Amino acid sequence: MNGTSGDLRNNIEKTLITADEIAARVGELGRMISGDYVSSVPVLAGVLKGCFIFMADLARSISIPVEVDFIAAASYGDSTRSSGVVRITKDIDMSITGRHVLIVEDIVDTGLTLDYLIRMLKTRNPLSVKVCALFDKPSGRKLDIKADYSGFLIPDRYVVGYGLDHDERYRNLPDACLLKEEH
Ligand code: IMP
């Protein structure tokens, strides 16, 4: 076995947002999106890997037809801070020309990843590109960029759980939690 074993909550300082609170908010986001896109079939473009749990819950809280695809972007930097140099490691498979695209992102921090993805997708002539982000750390922002749908504003701390990782761990924590500062 690779790495340390034991309690999943080792190195967790506290729960920031519970799974129940997330579920309620994801339901609200789904209802808003269902209303706003009622006369179209949007493409939900999930940003891997952090979106995988959010995407699964959000897609099921949307009551209109949608299509789902995934994109993966790697950002060079240390394990807790992106550098802004973004590289696409998996593109979406479907054509988005003439489609409404909703990027589904786990968290917006500096905004550099999102800015790159929006600009890249817009070159393909979609009808629109909007963003649904579960978590938003406005204090980390380096670019003036805002999610059109935002789940929770959170403080400038590193968050794990509900799909978000630290060195690939903690994604399977059901709650959004704060890592101990020294970790
Ligand atoms: P940005 O480019 O700085 O906005 O960062 C976007 C990406 O960095 C997110 O999609 C996450 O993958 C990662 N990230 C930023 N903050 C956190 C965090 O607090 N926990 C886990 N991942 C984060």
Notable characteristics:
21% helix, six-stranded mixed β-sheet, 3 helices, binds inosinic acid, three-stranded antiparallel β-sheet, 9 strands, globular, alpha/beta, 183 residues
Descriptive report:
- The structure is a single chain.
- The strands form two sheets. A six-stranded mixed β-sheet has the order 4-3-2-5-6-7, with helices on both faces. A three-stranded antiparallel β-sheet has the order 1-9-8, with helices on one face.
- The radius of gyration is 16 Å and the shape is globular.
- The chain is of the alpha/beta class.
- It is 21% helix and 34% strand.
- 30% of the residues are buried.
- The protein has helices at 19-36, 52-61, 112-122; strands at 12-17, 43-48, 67-78, 81-90, 100-108, 128-136, 149-153, 159-160, 176-179.
- Helix 1 packs across helix 2 (52-61).
- The chain has three helices and nine strands.
- It binds inosinic acid.
- The site of inosinic acid has 18 residues, from strand 5, helix 3 and strand 8.
